[in-house]
Amino acid sequence: MSGARRDGAGEPADVSAVDRAFEATPRVDFLPPAERHFAAVERALPIGHGQTCSQPAAVRAMLELLDVAPGQRVLDVGAGSGWTTALLATLVGPSGAVVGVELEPELTRRAAARVAATGRTWARVEQAVPGRLGWPAEAPYDRVLVSAEAPEVPAELLAQLAPGGVMVLPVAGRMLQVATTVGGEPTVSEHGHYLFVPLR
Hints:
Layout: E1 4-7, H1 15-24, E2 45-48, E3 51-53, H2 56-66, E4 73-77, H3 83-92, E5 97-102, H4 105-117, E6 123-127, E7 141-146, H5 155-158, E8 161-171, E9 174-179, E10 187-195
Parallel strand pairs: 4-5, 4-7, 5-6, 7-8
Antiparallel strand pairs: 1-10, 2-3, 8-9, 9-10
């Protein structure tokens, strides 16, 4: 997971809920010991294996665009440090569910332990399957957050999004909000430019 904001942003959906999630989920708890001193700094921080923990402003913007509500089922693609999975768990609450997926095995183990340590038992981090995006076994999801850059909106992830659902992801340097409709084509809106590691 990574993320650096370049310019622009969308309109916030429920800033107060996101603020509460940030307060309840300190970034410092999800960083390697050597990086914890920089937890409040607005930049992506390395977490090993060529991955980073996104800068807080980028994470906040994505969560506001995702517009998560209590009780929803959420997929977190590129869980990285586990921070976004834990933030999403706060937003959905005990009546919801969050599945984070991470490709790097060591990062998966660390993220799973950190999310478990929050006591939010309705959230977990799973080892992603190479060559397969998301976690189709438990689809569809009300919300999908993707913290890695794709060249286009991945059809494999779109297929895991419920009708009326929302996916937020960086595509070719632009932050997109993709909203599905019942029986119609998804609607796509752009919300500024960001830099992320490639989606694999």
